[in-house]
Design goal:
The protein has one domain. The protein is elongated, with a radius of gyration of 21 Å. The protein contains 3 helices and no strands. It is mainly α. Helix content is 81%, strand content 0%.
Length: 73
């Protein structure tokens, strides 16, 4: 590793950290938005137990795609 590369290494690490942090924040905001929609849909469903079960199975990977009612949100 030459001198120039050695000086750039900490900068590259900081850039990668900043990018990872920005991505994590964006993902949390998206998750918050999705959870708000799910909460609204959950409140309007008649059978809350069934909705919870469908969501749990979807999150656990039982469904390859989102449940149809969730896609409409």
């Amino acid at each position: 590793m030459n001198e120039h590369t050695r000086k750039l290494a900490p900068v590259k690490l900081l850039q990668q950290f900043a990018l990872n942090r920005a991505l994590a924040i964006a993902q949390l905001r998206e998750l918050d938005r999705v959870m708000l929609h799910i909460s609204s849909a959950y409140d309007t469903m008649l059978d809350h137990t069934n909705v919870g079960l469908i969501l749990a199975e979807w999150i656990m990977g039982a469904y390859e795609t989102e449940p149809a009612w969730l896609v409409k949100l």
